[in-house]
Amino acid sequence: MKVCVGQVTLPGDEFDMSPLESNKKIVVGPGLAEFEGMIKIIKPGILRYREPATYWIDSHQKRYVANKGDLVVGIVTQKVGDIFRVDIGSSEQASLSYLSFEGATKRNRPDVKIGDIVYANVLVANKDMEAELVCIDSDGHSNGLGVIRSGGFLFQSSLHLVRKLLNPNCVLQKTLGKTFEFETAIGMNGRIWVRAQSDIQTITMANAILASEHMNNVQIETMCKKLCKVASKMD
Amino acid sequence: MRETPLSNCEREFILKCIAQHKRLDGRSAYDYRDIRIAFGVSLGCCHVELGKTRVLAQVSCEVGQPKQTRPHDGVLFVNVEMSPMACPSFEAGRQSEEGVELSRLMERCLKESRCMDLESLCIVAGEKAWHIRVDIHVLNHEGNILDCASIAAISALAHFRRPDVTVQGEEIRIHSMEDRTPVPLSIHHFPLLVSFTFFSQGKHMLVDPSEKEEKVMEGKMVIGMNKHREICTLQVTGQMLLLKEQVLRCSNIAVTKVTVITELIFQALENDKQARLKGEKHGFAELVSGEKITSNKQPVTDVPVSQAMEESEEDGSSSMDSDSEESESFTQHASEERKVEILAKGVGMIGDGGPSKWIDLTCDDDHAESKKSTKFKPELIELDGESSEEECQVVLDAS
Amino acid sequence: MAAAFIVVRKEDLEAQQNAESCQTLRCLTSELGCLTRSDGSVSFSQGDTTVLAVSYGPAEVRINQEQYDKATVEVVYKPKVGLPRPIDRKREAILKSTLEAAIVTSLHPRSSISIIIQETEDLGSNMACCINAACLALLDAAVHMAFMVAAVAVSVMEDGQIKLDPNKKEELEGRATLTFVFDSADLKVVSVVTSGTFSQEEYKKSIDLTRLAAERVFQFYRDSLSKKLMQSI
């Protein structure tokens, strides 16, 4: 079966090249692969297109596969010599050097304990190697990355829900922001950390985010209104 | 497989909420999650949902020798299976410490409470007796497997029917289902387990803990009780000390919970019985409603036999041959059409937002070099160090 | 080990009587993502035969099973009654080789893709149901696959009549049961599981009949996933 942009695709479907001019150079992203001279779909999802010539499959999944440049929320599980082992939800634990924190030197070690959560950037991601994380940008500034140790709550959602939240068209955060003051760290690995002004608000936020998985913008707005009302009564 | 570790942040938040008498799912301390009891098409098959925790119990029977020490009794065997289906940290085929504890508690609940009349399972004293086996499969672990398993096990036992047996002198006849209506097991009472979890030196107590709450608890007390307010089992685990009042208060809570759940089991059994009598659809397949977006239903579809026959006749040869022909034509077809050539594997970024980060750079891809047509010089694309997933740049070539 | 009893229903008997004129594929139902702890899960049923399947992947692999160039595919089949028997191990092996053909294992070296299948109600065509459920579980987890697989079973009755998607009674009465697995790209046979004796002619007939039925199963996959995936902003 041939598929075009916006359609639901399933593995084994064939990417329809006929509308493209010949000799056109295209970029194929996740979910598409070349098989015997044809581009085939290898993941269930929706075929997406972005200018100038990028195609990829937007799929629903829970398992994270490390990708270079992703911002992720990890849990420190071990200290081994100079590095921390961090669980980011992928098939392997990632490594995080103690030097890749803002202001860290050999003398001035960062204060990281086992079980802490870190908001980090994936520096190296390769299917053949373990992923490496950093909590600084190329200038050595933290830029919001680092250990999160100011209360709040961490929970797991699916990867597409995270992408949905980060989509500028999604109204969830804006709607919640009208009633609550909150701080969040959204990891591409499906982990979301939230802290609102009170615990009830934090719980409400977590529930609102998880409930919005299969909702559209209108439904999200009504759901948020209802939840906010209940939460404000409880406070 | 490794389970996601619990972070300090979650632990602190959950404990803080419990101290403020709040729970993450909005329940109050003594609330159970919703319980759903369903029975399968086969007898003695029960599926229980406690919130999102799911347990399946199946009862089966066979004729065997009674135990030498108890020649007049049948045998009840309880087996708890925890597969990685329920939770990634469970291992298939190997019982964890948690699994052993669960099995033992279930055995104590069902066997040692003498809820079943084992004497009625005896066929010939000392020689033949029914062996009843309860297999409990944990399907999804979202906390409080124990209570869920005990509901499933006792409901399955109550739902089960064993074949009727007649003994005439030396001859033992086991009647088939069609021959004689199978007989239910005689169950005296319905023992149910109720778990209580304790936090901050027993200061706070919760009923029906969720998975996260179980991870941060200090200790647990399990009370096995029937609706006649008789305690069948009591177990305390964990590092905490309890006061007499606390134990009494828990048993009082257990009384109300057990009464409600027993009522629910009777209701479910009655509903199933009615559905079977009326010949209505029953079983697990009926549980799936087509209304949810994650579920789907395709009614019975007809597959025209004639079409299948015609096709095979048209082909003339066997379908194996037609397969190979097809594949030949398929490859030809492909070669006539445009070809895809991979120029380079690259790296793409999606998480960071903003414009795409695919950049151009020189590369010497042998594959592209050898295959490329003369009129087309491949543009060379950068490899940003490592290729992460399966992103690659390709060219459509009209050769 | 005596299995749990099976109750034959009135509808099943009626359906059997009507079977001669047209072959039917029983009602298919699926519920994707029904379990919360796994990466992909499905409760799948064909008629009254229901199976629960979950998949994890690409996940951590045990060190002794690690392969440096591809992912390790693991299949666990759990019978409803008793411990896994040799026949269940065989079933696992068939499932493993079938699914290995479909999964693009080279994309995730040094990881595992595991599938766990729990029998919940075996009322005929259990093997086919397991394969279909496993495929749906992999689709739900969005594991990379080169193609999808669909299995359909037939029973060859004593009189040579071929019954599509047999129920338990037909399976027991039949002379042979054949399960064919097709791929979604060209509807070619991926694997065949047979038991009992049958002629070459019956085999050919079965293959053509099941291929048609497999198309319906693929359509069902497409419908189920479209319903789930189309819900995004």
TrEMBL record, chain A:
Any Pfam family hit: KH_6
Localization (cell): Cytoplasm; Nucleus, Nucleolus
Source organism superkingdom: Eukaryota
Single GO molecular function: RNA binding
Ranges of residues in domain K Homology: 152-198
Gene Ontology biological process terms in this record: CUT catabolic process; exonucleolytic trimming to generate mature 3'-end of 5.8S rRNA from tricistronic rRNA transcript (SSU-rRNA, 5.8S rRNA, LSU-rRNA); nuclear polyadenylation-dependent rRNA catabolic process; poly(A)-dependent snoRNA 3'-end processing; regulation of gene expression; TRAMP-dependent tRNA surveillance pathway; U4 snRNA 3'-end processing
Cellular-component GO terms for this entry: cytoplasmic exosome (RNase complex); nuclear exosome (RNase complex); nucleolus
Main location class: cytoplasm
Keywords attached to this entry: Cytoplasm, Exosome, Nucleus, RNA-binding, rRNA processing
Similarity comment text for this entry: Belongs to the RRP40 family.
Listed name of the protein: Exosome complex component RRP40
Automatic annotation (TrEMBL), chain B:
InterPro entries: ExoRNase_PH_dom1, ExoRNase_PH_dom2, ExoRNase_PH_dom2_sf, Exosome_comp_Rrp42_subfam, PNPase/RNase_PH_dom_sf, Ribosomal_Su5_D2-typ_SF, Rrp45
Keywords: Cytoplasm, Exosome, Nucleus, RNA-binding, rRNA processing
SUPFAM superfamilies: Ribonuclease PH domain 2-like (SSF55666), Ribosomal protein S5 domain 2-like (SSF54211)
Intracellular or extracellular location(s): Cytoplasm; Nucleus, Nucleolus
Annotated Acidic residues bias: 310-328
Residues annotated as signal peptide: none
Source species, domain of life: Eukaryota
Record-level Gene Ontology MF annotations: mRNA 3'-UTR AU-rich region binding
Stretch list, region Disordered: 295-337
Recorded GO CC terms: cytoplasmic exosome (RNase complex); nuclear exosome (RNase complex); nucleolus
GO biological process: exonucleolytic trimming to generate mature 3'-end of 5.8S rRNA from tricistronic rRNA transcript (SSU-rRNA, 5.8S rRNA, LSU-rRNA); nuclear mRNA surveillance; nuclear polyadenylation-dependent rRNA catabolic process; rRNA catabolic process; TRAMP-dependent tRNA surveillance pathway; U1 snRNA 3'-end processing; U4 snRNA 3'-end processing; U5 snRNA 3'-end processing
Residues in Exoribonuclease phosphorolytic domain copies: 32-163, 189-255
PANTHER family per UniProt: EXOSOME COMPLEX COMPONENT RRP45 (PTHR11097:SF14), EXOSOME COMPLEX EXONUCLEASE RIBOSOMAL RNA PROCESSING PROTEIN (PTHR11097)
Similarity remark: Belongs to the RNase PH family.
Name of protein: Exosome complex component RRP45
TrEMBL record, chain C:
One GO cellular component term noted in the UniProt record for this chain: nuclear exosome (RNase complex)
Keyword vocabulary terms for this entry: Exosome, Nucleus, rRNA processing
Main location: nucleus
A Gene Ontology biological process term: nuclear mRNA surveillance
MF annotations from Gene Ontology: RNA binding
Subcellular location: Nucleus
Domain Exoribonuclease phosphorolytic: 25-143, 148-209
PANTHER family hit by this protein: EXOSOME COMPLEX COMPONENT (PTHR11953), EXOSOME COMPLEX COMPONENT RRP46 (PTHR11953:SF1)
Family stated for the protein in its record: Belongs to the RNase PH family.
Name recorded for this polypeptide: Exosome complex component RRP46-like
Organism lineage: Eukaryota, Metazoa, Spiralia, Lophotrochozoa, Mollusca
